[in-house]
Amino acid sequence: MKYSLCIGAYSGQDEIYHLEKIKEHGFNGLEYYAWWDLNDMKKTAKEQERIGVGISATCTKFISLVDESLRDAYLEGIRQTIEACQILNIRSVISQTGNVLEGVSRDVQKQTMVETLKRCAPLFEEAGIVLEIEPLNGLVDHQGHFLQRSDDSVDVIDQVGSPNVKLVFDVYHQQITEGNVIRNATGYIDRINHYHIADNPGRKQPGTGELNYVNILKAIKATGFSGFVGLECGYTVDTDTAIEQFKNEILSQVE
């Protein structure tokens, strides 16, 4: 498995600083969400080549997937994001789904999402990039978010039916929403493109809360998964110290 950090892990530092640190720690990628905030994408691409580590995932310009009136705008954002990914050699694009629309049935909103994703799929297939939808918890962090459960998300992915539309499984969010983490994180492995990890409660680095990340990561590894596991978390101590603790106390037992 490959491990990534998220932009913001080193507060106030740019993507180049993060990439240097990722290389230093022996990790494999950076999740840089707002690609449109990069000052010079071609310069960043050259720096990635120099450092030997690059941006592994970004986000689409967010617009609700459940609102049919915003479909054209969503698709335009997808086209722009794919162009950025081609410059930066990014292979994964994360998309949230938007909040539930009042006065519209859940089934209608779900089918709107499926139809929009079906229109996105050929664009990603041609580009060789995976679009990942992300369920988020509605109890603590994202009240009203449409997709919250992994089974509901997998149903959407199955209806779309494209190898380039998958799921990012965020262990923190799914622990809050549904629990049953290892069963879901491994049972849906063929629909999952990458994982996010953080502990609960608090969304800090693994090892600070209730989740047994040694067992979780061992179970994911046992499936043969070789993609990215991203530390999407805050830190209770200095970032470098926290990462060393994660490697020494958790990864050493997984690998």
TrEMBL record:
SUPFAM superfamilies from the UniProt entry: Xylose isomerase-like
GO MF annotation list: isomerase activity
InterPro entries: HyI-like, Sugar_Epim/Isomerase, Xyl_isomerase-like_sf, Xyl_isomerase-like_TIM-brl
Signal sequence, start to end: none
Keyword hit for Isomerase: yes
Cross-referenced Gene3D superfamilies: Divalent-metal-dependent TIM barrel enzymes (3.20.20.150)
Superkingdom as given in the UniProt entry: Bacteria
Keywords noted in UniProt: Isomerase, Pyruvate
Family to which the UniProt record says this protein belongs: Belongs to the hyi family.
Protein name (record): Hydroxypyruvate isomerase
